[in-house]
Amino acid sequence: PPSAAVNLRPGAEQKVVFITARVHPGETPSSFVCQGIIDFLVSQHPIAKVLRDHLVFKIAPMLNPDGVYLGNYRCSLMGFDLNRHWANPSPWAHPTLHGVKQLIIDMYYNPKINLEFYIDIHAHSTMMNGFMYGNIFEDEERFQRQAVFPKLLCQNAEDFSYSSTSFNRDAVKAGTGRRFLGGLLNDTSYCYTLEVSFYSYILGGPTSAVPYTEEAYMKLGRNVARTFLDYYRLNSLVERPLAPTPKTR
């Protein structure tokens, strides 16, 4: 029988969302956010089923496993800040980046694959809330389209801050995944860094800081996944639970 999944039909173009995390070993919250995304996507939730039918998610949950194992804060086993070496990663010195970058490039040149999103998950030691970094483009329309996903995420996640979200092209960040892939991929691909605070998010007034928990980080991950439903306007395909029949008097 033909597959129900739109993206698995013969000849169908696959829309790919590529997610990476934990390139900086000390940024443990990024792993919990990524865990939330994965747990949600493989669940039986009606939204997750629709997302799996229409999108392909590729996830590399830990780009710096040796650094994590050693308890490093920012560097790999060999002392590299991997998030500055995307432009020319060495298969010997930066093997995880080299492998992921090669996979992304292969997908980019595959006519049957449309790489739509790249999101790299980090944690931030001084800012509150979740927020994103995006790229700056000369093309005004592309620049505005890039703002759509973080705006939608802001509506879904109470701890995500659009006002802290920024778009930049400073030289220091040139070797990051977001910046490098933003320059490599075409104008239908969106590349972001998703940052989440190490400690708190603010609800309501400026004094009401709520400490993050592992569960709150995972909830942000779930909300990131759910936002693709809004972005691709797939809401109408979600199976609603049957409304209870009103009791007759």
Automatic annotation (TrEMBL):
Keywords: Carboxypeptidase, Hydrolase, Protease. SUPFAM superfamilies: Zn-dependent exopeptidases. The keyword Membrane does not apply. It comes from the Eukaryota. One of its GO terms (molecular function) is zinc ion binding. Pfam families: Peptidase_M14 (PF00246). CDD domains: M14_AGBL4_like. The active site is at residue 195. InterPro entries: Cytosolic_carboxypeptidase, Peptidase_M14. GO terms for biological process: proteolysis. Belongs to the peptidase M14 family. This is CBPC6 carboxypeptidase. It comes from Rhynochetos jubatus (kagu).
